[in-house]
Amino acid sequence: MKVLGIVAEYNPFHNGHKFHIEQSKKVSGCDFVVAVMSGNFVQRGEPALTDKYSRTEMALKNGVDVVIELPVSFSTASAEFFSGYSIKILDSLGMIDAICFGSESGNLTPLKNFANFLTSETPDYKITLKSELDKGYSYPIARKHAVSDFIFAQEISDSPNDILGIEYLKALGRIHSKIIPYTIKREAASYHSKEVISSIASATAIRRACSNEEFSKIETCMPKSAYDILRKCYTSGEYSLGLGSYDDIFQFILKTKTQAELAEIINISEGLENRFIKTANDTYPLVEIIDKVKTKRYTHTRISRAALHMILDTTKADFDIFYHSMPYIRILGMKKESSFLINEMTKHASCPIITKLNNFSNTLDEIGVSMLGKEISSSDIYYLSQKNKPHPKNSEYGHQIIVI
């Protein structure tokens, strides 16, 4: 038995994701798939289109055997920490044989070369990187420019797929993991493509079509079971209206928190808290505030993440403690026929495996209780963004593990 690890958001699950799962099993020779999936908030610094339970069901009905939650502090983090903690989860399970991720070229060698170089940063590289950042480039672009002065890096794109791939490889090397990496070439639509032009469309394009209620455009871009779940969510109003749902909350935060308190939030640095406060005095909607705060160096995504961390109250101190800990691994769903994988995880994992929240405080240390508490509160905040606000019973304590 060989088990494949995949890291994903499935926001929402589409044909490209299904293709990735199928091809990943082929190239790795694995029999089962364990996916580490972002919860209710995603790396773009936004609430997911539908909640983690509906997206877990989509994944389980389309090739994934077990879905594990990537904690909110890291599902909303930069590529380094998003990838780093995902790899730590897979490695901590003690039974994952391989990981496969998408890339623009499908060639692992240049990604490994890039990752190996970054693992042992030289003083000259650090000087060059600072020079590129001083020119106003965002970190990923500045890093690529800097690396290109030392190794051939032209085969590496600026796409999120390649950026994440490099970070997966760095993380595997950093912890000396035995998990074997593979990559496959991303097919059809690009990550940022906003138009539905084939049966494999980007999640961005699908979300855009949903916001315009153009569901006929996306029906052929998703497996039927995933599409049916998505349509059910829209029919019942169980979908997120986005960051704009938090306009009032954000204004409340800016008017009640001190500059010093805001400066303690993760992703807030170099006086960014002052830019938020100043801009908020001139405009109201959060999406407009983000547009005005962003710069060439601080991208829209980076500012969105910062704003979301202010809403979720994710401090630098908590983030650092959580990142250097693995207090638990939480299962969101599984296939009935793959339930034995949970038993294997329980035997081999280096930390507790959580399948339900009741009495979790009896099995977790102080850090684990704090980390899971952050997950519960963030889910309550997530549901405030849905069109039809759910009854409190639909909070974390009202949900059971998804079993199909």
Describe this structure in words.
The chain starts with a strand and ends with a strand. Helices cover 49% and strands 11% of the residues. It has helices at 15-28, 52-60, 72-75, 79-92, 108-119, 123-134, 139-148, 160-174, 203-211, 215-218, 224-236, 247-256, 259-263, 272-280, 286-293, 300-312, 316-323, 340-348, 366-383, and strands at 3-8, 32-38, 41-42, 46-47, 66-70, 98-103, 180-185, 329-334, 353-354, 402-403. The longest helix has 18 residues, at 366-383. It contains 19 helices and 10 strands. The strands form 2 sheets. Strands 1, 2, 5, 6, 7, 8, 9 and 10 form an 8-stranded mixed sheet that branches.
Largest sheet: 8 strands, mixed
Shape: globular
Number of distinct helices: 19
Give the N-to-C terminal Cα separation.
Answer: 21 Å
Oligomeric state of the chains in view: single chain
Helical content band: 40-55%
Order of SSEs, N→C?
A: EHEEEHEHHEHHHHEHHHHHHHHHEHEHE
Strand content: 5-15%
Give the overall average pLDDT: 91
Q: Low-confidence segments, ≥5 residues, pLDDT <50?
A: none
State the secondary-structure class: alpha/beta
- Taking all Cα atoms into account, the compactness measure Rg is 20 Å
Instruction: Give me the count of strands.
Output: 10
